Amino acid sequence: MSNVAEKIAQFVSNLEIDVIYIYPGGTIAPLVNAFVALGVRVEVFKHEQGAVYAAMAKARITGKLQVAMVTSGPGVTNAITPLADAYYDSTPLLLITGQIGTGDLLAPRKVRQRGFQEVPTISIVSEISKLALCPTTPEEALSQLPMLVKRALDGRMGPVVFDLPMDIQRAEITSQKNTFEVSDQDQKFKANISEYEISSISEALANSKRPVLMLGHGALISGDFDKYLKFSDAANLTVVSSILGLGSFDCNNKRFMGYIGHTGHRVANRSVHEADFLLVLGARLDVRQTGTLVNDFVPNGKIVWVNNDLSEINFPRVRVDWPICGDVSEFIDRLLCKSESFAVVRDEKWLESLREQRSLSEEDQFSDVSDQISPKEVLIKLNQLMRGGKGYVVTGVGSHQQWAARHIDYGPDTWRLLTSAGHGAMGYDIPTALGAAMTSPYKTVICIVGDGSFLMNIQELASIAERGLNVKILILNNNRLGIVSQFQKITWGIDHGAGRFETPDFVSISKGFGIPAKRVKVKADLADCMEWFWNSMGPLLLEVIIDHDAEVTPMLLGGQSMDKMWLGHGL
């Protein structure tokens, strides 16, 4: 005779999930022990955020559902930030949370808390998960889990939550029937894209002079990289991406102009603004991508928008001529069948002007004669060292995130960017780098982080050191919460609370965790330190003291059209 926890562990194991990411606690202990007894690897981290972000890293890299487990109460609330991150950035995740027993949970007592370490998990997480369920009988537990797994993977992927009362985990199963059933069928979104739509879109594309292809996170997840290249060549397209779409197209390809939006490449924004045809694959077209002037987005062109989230399609922020709720891969296949109509004349002078502007590398200009280290020159040196390699670049959130997106070359067969976009969560960096290195131990993982974001989950340095993972951590330290400080200075002229952000001795802290570390303060030492950073096996940490006043420029501000970016203070 088995219990519910043992049945759940067996079901998860049958999904070919070989590792469970946890921070342990009393109300989740029965399920943890069931996984251990079954021989499934259980990895323990130093904080719930560390566990969930590490799981999410594997989910982002593999595209497959992963499982994280936390206990009730503070375990749940500590997992909220990564859960929201998974929801907004479409990461498939099963978060299993412990819960107090059903005797207390179902008691008709109108009190604030019905048991030790209880929080109303389902109420808390319902708006940041695709589905959240709490079974109150063994039969419900067995029937709800397959439903949750299917929901996480259907259509636009995302997280689901299984809130498990402790007594339900321990409840014995009297029937030998395995009620778990989950099918791989219908997990890939299918849409009814009419032949009329395909023909009219093909005709508009054939008649355009300045067509642009935009690749979003959905395009990256779809993974049809060869098709994007084939399609862009066949139709002679200019290519841009969202920040999460970076890596879906080779950054060194002459067609690629960079990523668009609030902190995107200037020429990428210009190309979209001046386009007469924009095809958007797997992006949300949110305010950080389009700017606030929604009526001025692609003002002289037609827009095709392919997204597998019907709720997004039903409520567009900008004018869309062809809103298509469908699968990116299916749509590209259908459009490629019309490729014979694409060989038409484009605006070659416009294309040449875009390529010339791209070569200027206008973003984050710095002075060669200054004695301050510029973040751009650090990342240019790093990018040179990275050429010919492959792996993962992980960032936190802040100015360093934008610098890393702008000045490092990504591509399908080289480097992939892992970052927090929709939720924009500081602290994403260290635990995600940890999870990436655990998932791909023979690939290089570079964690680029600012001094503010680094402090959010610094405890996971211990998890990296314990496992001896090849994680290279680069701290760009300006003693400033840079992106917030910049916003405050632009808006109010002062940056109270963000302009001076005192930090501890990161080198000593890193060494205290058992991770070799160096600090560079002057330009003359930068080249040697970067060589050490690149050529030494991780884990290791390099702290670079950068120019305190370095900002993210240009930037698309509220009230600006895509071709009119703020160039910096005094410009």
Q: What's the arrangement of secondary structure elements?
A:
Blueprint: E1 2-3, H1 4-14, E2 19-22, H2 29-38, E3 41-44, H3 48-62, E4 66-70, H4 74-78, H5 80-88, E5 93-99, H6 102-105, H7 121-125, E6 131-133, H8 138-153, E7 159-165, H9 166-170, E8 172-173, H10 195-207, E9 211-215, H11 217-222, H12 225-235, E10 238-241, E11 256-259, H13 266-274, E12 277-281, H14 287-290, E13 302-307, H15 310-314, E14 322-325, H16 328-336, H17 348-359, H18 375-386, E15 391-395, H19 399-407, E16 415-418, H20 429-439, E17 444-450, H21 451-454, H22 461-467, E18 471-477, H23 482-492, H24 506-512, E19 517-520, H25 526-535, E20 540-545
Parallel strand pairs: 2-3, 2-4, 4-5, 5-7, 6-7, 9-10, 9-12, 10-11, 12-13, 13-14, 15-16, 15-17, 17-18, 18-20, 19-20
Antiparallel strand pairs: 1-8
Helix pairs in contact: 1-2, 3-5, 3-20, 12-16, 18-19, 18-25
Description:
The protein has 571 residues and is an alpha/beta fold. The protein is 39% helix and 17% strand. Strands 3-2-4-5-7-6 form a six-stranded parallel sheet, sandwiched between helices. The chain has a six-stranded parallel sheet with strand order 11-10-9-12-13-14, with helices on both faces. It has a six-stranded parallel sheet with strand order 16-15-17-18-20-19, sandwiched between helices. Helix 19 links the parallel strand 15 and strand 16. Helix 1 crosses helix 2, helix 3 packs parallel to helix 5 and helix 12 packs parallel to helix 16. The longest helix has 16 residues. About 1% of the residues have low confidence.
